[in-house]
Design a protein that fits this description.
heterodimer, A: 251 residues, alpha/beta, six-stranded mixed sheet, three-stranded antiparallel sheet, 9 strands, 35% helix, 21% strand, globular, disordered N terminus, B: 314 residues, mainly alpha, 72% helix, flat
């Protein structure tokens, strides 16, 4: 897996960053403590960025702001329209896998012929064509997340925001979904911002790993995975993460 | 910091093996591994053993035993003569009264009249209660204003409306329908409101993330998600309309009002015909059970099974 990232398929680099956040702060109400404090983030089209942090670092808040589901208290945010994936698959339990994907296409305004063919294609992409008529409760956790991925891809957004999407899965399934997601990323040329508290997951997936501090969430450091030794990088990141967590002892 | 020291946070200075989970799987394809895992992890589709007919038969046995037990206790009390026979007739006398009433056609008239009113009244209250429920569930100030009134109406026994209804509408069908509506509509409203309240916030968030507008959110996400609560409300609404109907029919007799089961009950009392009274009570009960078993139970089961929420009871 040494081929270069498939970035040029949807946007050219002359479009500038697909996500750009400058000095973003977030407070949920005026008296509550800062959740995000001066976050700067820039993501280029086609990039796969992993945002790593412990609990309380405001990772999810940052994603919500990028997705437009929440507003920054101050700072500048511009982000391309995005699709969002959560830790829970959040599939509609009364719809089959295919109908869940279909709903995203329908809400996007696709006509019925396009919906039928796209649903088929997307389920094939996540290798669930045989489970098209199953309902979420008939699928395993990993299969549900793949349906959720297909649904997010159905939105046809250049930017895919993922909020710990594999956090609730067992290790075997998670490893496979890492391969799967990387394959889908290369095949579709999407830009992915992937939030996780799992060091190895961040190193496994991200081209860049951005580490955030907790309470308030700030960007501590970032690593370009290609410049690092993949074998030792997880150790290094774990060290920094533990150092950051230990800082909160006795507060 | 130097990576060659033991860190203060207890991280050993060895390279973790397999830190990179990219593995060469050799001849086995990713698709193959994934298909294998899917097969291992997907919940097995459990089919209850035995034939469909066998299952139904098995399910019928337990209630049948209960009915036989009740009949046995009843007959025993009659034999023991705890009350005079004209006050406590036995199953045999009651069955005879039922047969007589059926032969004369009175039973069928009453059954037809009551069922028609009950079902029509119930459907009316669904037609009225559903939009009102949606309004209360979705519009904040409407809920604050009318929510408590609806709850109050649900607690108010609908029989309390009968005197007023007779004064307003006289002894007419309008009186009966009014009482049924006042009995059933609050339940339908409340069922829908609590169904909507119980929609997981995550599903709304998904709707927003997928770009659903207010109408699409209501039609595609909120209403389907609220369906189990709504159906529970309908079920209670039916029970309330049937009860309200019986109360209205017992009190409001004569005039332009047709002859329903409540009137039959009242007639039995007027004639001191205890077997007829008990026979009518049994018919009212059986109608209630039949509607539940034939309409609501299958509907509820289908909805819950689709969502994987239905527990197959052994």
């Amino acid at each position: 897996m040494t081929q270069p990232k498939a970035s040029a398929t949807t946007r050219s680099s002359s479009d500038g960053p697909i996500v750009s956040a400058a000095n973003v702060t977030k407070r949920f109400d005026p008296r509550s403590p800062l959740v995000l404090d001066g976050v700067d983030l820039s993501v280029e089209p086609g990039e796969f960025v992993a945002v790593l942090g412990a609990s309380g670092c405001g990772k999810s808040t940052l994603l919500n702001i990028l997705a437009g589901l929440d507003e920054a208290t101050s700072g500048e945010v511009t982000a391309a329209p995005s699709a969002l994936m959560f830790q829970e698959s959040a599939l509609l339990p009364w719809l089959t896998a295919a109908r869940n994907v279909d709903l995203a296409l329908r809400l996007r305004g696709a006509d019925s012929a396009e919906r039928r063919s796209r649903t088929q294609e997307l389920l094939e992409l996540v290798k669930l064509q045989d489970a098209a008529d199953k309902r979420p409760h008939e699928l395993s956790g990993g299969m549900r997340q793949r349906v959720a991925l297909a649904r997010a891809l159905a939105q046809e957004r250049d930017l895919l925001l993922m909020d710990e999407p594999f956090g609730a899965l067992d290790a075997i399934t998670r490893d496979l979904l890492h391969d799967e997601l990387e394959r889908v990323w290369r095949a579709t040329g999407r830009t992915i911002v992937f939030v996780t508290h799992n060091v190895r997951e961040a190193v496994r997936l991200g081209q860049r790993v951005i580490m955030m501090s907790s309470r308030p969430g700030r960007i501590l450091r970032e690593w370009n995975v290609a410049d690092e030794d993949r074998a030792t990088l997880p150790n290094k990141l774990t060290y920094h993460l533990r150092e950051e967590i230990a800082r909160h002892a006795g507060r | 910091m130097p990576a060659d020291e033991r860190t203060p946070h207890g991280l050993p200075n060895v390279d973790l093996p397999g830190a990179d989970t990219r593995v060469d799987t050799g001849t086995v394809s990713l698709a193959g591994i994934e298909a294998g895992l899917d097969a291992l992890q997907a919940p097995p589709t459990r089919r209850s053993p035995g034939s469909r007919f066998g299952n139904i038969a098995a399910k019928a046995v337990a209630p049948l035993i209960a009915v036989i037990a009740v009949l046995a206790v009843w007959q025993t009390l009659v034999w023991l003569e705890v009350m005079p026979i004209w006050n406590l007739p036995g199953p045999r006398q009651v069955f005879d009264a039922l047969a007589r009433s059926a032969r004369s056609g009175q039973l069928w008239t009453a059954l037809h009249t009551s069922l028609q009113r009950g079902i029509l009244g119930f459907l009316l209250s669904v037609a009225i209660g559903t939009p009102l429920g949606l309004l209360i569930a979705r519009v904040r100030w409407v809920r604050m204003a009318f929510g408590p009134i609806v709850t109050g109406l649900m607690v108010l026994p609908s029989i309390a409306w009968v005197p007023a209804a007779i004064i307003w509408f006289g002894l007419s069908n309008a009186t009966v329908y009014f009482v049924v509506l006042m009995g059933a509509t609050p339940s339908v409203i409340n069922g829908l409101v609590s169904g909507v309240d119980q929609v997981p916030p995550l599903l709304r968030r998904v709707g927003r993330a997928l770009g659903a507008g207010p109408l699409e959110m209501t039609v595609r996400i909120v209403l389907p998600a609220a369906l189990p609560g709504y159906v529970a409300g309908l079920k209670q609404g039916w029970a309330f309309s049937w009860r309200a109907l019986m109360a209205a029919e017992i009190i409001a007799v004569g005039g332009a009002i047709g002859f329903g089961l409540g009137a039959l009950l009242q007639q039995g009392r007027d004639l001191a015909n205890m077997p007829l009274v008990i026979a009518t009570i049994l018919i009212i009960l059986v109608v209630g059970i039949a509607i539940e078993l034939l309409c609501f139970a299958p509907l509820e089961r289908a909805i819950l099974r689709r969502r994987g929420l239905y527990a197959e009871t052994a």
